[in-house]
Design brief:
Order of helices and strands: EEEEEE
Number of helices: 0
Radius of gyration: 13 Å
Helix content: under 10%
Number of strands: 6
Structural class: mainly beta
Strand order of the largest sheet: 2-1-5-6
Largest sheet: 4 strands, antiparallel
Shape: globular
Length: 81
């Protein structure tokens, strides 16, 4: 079975969920979302985040050569000790 995949022109950003401060900004190469037969993914080094704090993942998807941009920001995670 193959997973669902985002378009190849998809990127992520990480924000502090309390302050909305951008921790990792969108970047056309460093925050590009990868994909394989299982679906879309990205890797994050968790040692750079403060423990016991909530963060928000924001996704930016460029469609039609960048003419249509969609953003989603309703994904949260907590870093545990």
């Amino acid at each position: 079975m193959t997973g669902e995949r985002l378009p190849t022109s998809s990127f992520y950003s990480i924000l502090d969920s309390v302050t909305d401060e951008t921790i990792i900004p969108f970047d056309t190469s460093a925050t590009k979302i990868a994909g394989d037969i299982s679906g879309s993914f990205f890797k994050l080094r968790m040692d750079s985040f403060m423990p016991e704090r909530y963060y928000k993942i924001m996704l930016k998807i460029n469609r039609d050569g960048g003419d249509e941009i969609q953003t989603f920001d309703d994904f949260y995670f907590k870093v545990a000790k």
